[in-house]
Design a protein that fits this description.
Layout lengths: L2 H12 L7 H8 L3 H13 L12 H10 L1 H4 L7 E7 L4 H4 L8 E4 L5 E5 L7 H6 L2 H15 L2 H15 L3
Parallel strand pairs: 2-3
Antiparallel strand pairs: 1-2, 1-3
Length: 166
């Protein structure tokens, strides 16, 4: 698996019941068609998506996010930089967690100065500008990767709700 595979699966989930094609994912995530196709093959092999490659196996995916992701795709806080807030610095998490420091995905157009967290793939900033739900979910994944226990439990609760059916 590659980090962008998680983003692609989350994007499929955010589409809900809306039909989509490979090019829709490619265009909205700024990832080439071939990379999306290869990602779906990897996800099929890992049993994270069904045989038709249209529906995410949410239970398996959630298990991976909660128990495996932080080991397979670890993150460490980096240098101070301007960027888009992530992890506990995302506006959604700020409702629950108060902190004097911030985590960001580096971006010259970002609104916050904080410690850099490497995004899952290079064009992630472009993709989150167009999809606030995807942005929130990716920030929650960063909470699991770099957060403290209380932050992680809040992120896990919301991820469970977001990945549940219906």
């Amino acid at each position: 698996m590659r980090p962008q595979d998680l983003v692609i699966l989350l994007k499929i989930i955010t589409k809900g019941e809306n039909p989509w094609q490979l090019k829709d994912l490619s265009n909205s995530l700024y990832i080439s068609n071939s990379e999306v196709s290869e990602s779906l093959e990897r996800s099929l092999y890992a049993n994270l998506i069904d045989f038709d490659k249209k529906n995410v196996n949410r239970g398996n995916f959630l298990d991976f996010l909660l128990f495996g992701m932080k080991y397979v795709f670890p993150a460490k806080a980096g240098i101070l930089t301007r960027g888009e807030p992530t992890a506990h610095s995302h506006p959604f998490m700020k409702e629950y967690i108060s902190s004097d420091y911030a985590y960001v995905w580096a971006s010259s157009t970002g609104s916050v100065i904080g410690q850099e967290i490497e995004p899952f793939y290079p064009n992630q900033i472009k993709a989150i500008k167009e999809d606030q739900e995807l942005y929130k979910l990716l920030a929650l994944l960063d909470v699991i990767r770099v957060g403290r226990l209380r932050e992680i439990s809040i992120a896990e609760m919301y991820l469970k709700k977001s990945l549940a059916y219906g």
